[in-house]
Amino acid sequence: MSLPTDEERSVLRAVIFDYGHTLVDFTVPEDALHGVYGEIRTRLVAEASVEVPEAADLVELVARQVTRRVDESYAHDRLVELDILHLFTAALTGLGFAPSPDTVRWIAETEHHALARHLHVPPDSLTALRDLRSAGLRMGVISNAHLLPYMMRRDWDALGFGQLLDDSVISSEVGIRKPHPDIFLDLLGRLGVDASEAVFVGDRLLDDVGGAHGIGMRAILTRQFRAEEVGPETAQPDFVVDRLPNIVPWVFERASEATVPGKSR
What we know:
By secondary structure, the protein is of the alpha/beta class. Helices cover about 45% and strands about 10% of the residues. The chain has helices at about 30-45, 55-75, 85-95, 100-115, 125-135, 150-160, 170-175, 180-190, 205-215, 245-255, and strands spanning about 15, 140-145, 165-170, 200, 220, 240. Helix 1 packs across helix 2, helix 1 runs antiparallel to helix 4 and helix 3 crosses helix 4 (about 100-115). The longest helix has 23 residues, at about 55-75.
């Protein structure tokens, strides 16, 4: 079944973004993990009744184990999100620890905070987001992430775009990941717009472009931080950009005249 043309679609009223590798580069320095696991080891030494591995070993036995479990889940049951607290508990229990829930949450928060310090949104991307917001468009984020939702939203505020959002959905709080249609429909309902009135912006052809198209949204592929190649067997984005700010003219052309700055009502 072919997708409708722009002429057959409703005017745009909302722009919804992916987070990692769309708004930010999710790559962090390798030594960031080793540094924070020195702090985590100190707490474990104070609480544990078993020998605690050195910080570098904890990175492999705990942090990497959590990452491997997430990667495996994408390979075998990609639509179901995992609970990061359960992942940390399982990794620590496997080493002979009996961590309290408070300690597990502290470890998850401490690791998250250390890694988030290295994230930033390019200034021109923030300008683009402000331009879209000023135009009266509804704004949201849908993120596939096993991380703690409240920590992520704190990051978004610190990065300068959380305040620009009308609402957001994170897979760890709803238990499902993109491209599951329900995670898209959830946010559309919160924003009060139909799928035909929204465009999704993301870096992944399957999760972002394919998921959005599956419920009737338009989709833009961004290749700013990671580049997937569009081919005959992949989802076909409505537009491809090398930098996020390049979406603004495209969106304004398809938005209601009443929302676009400089146009008559």
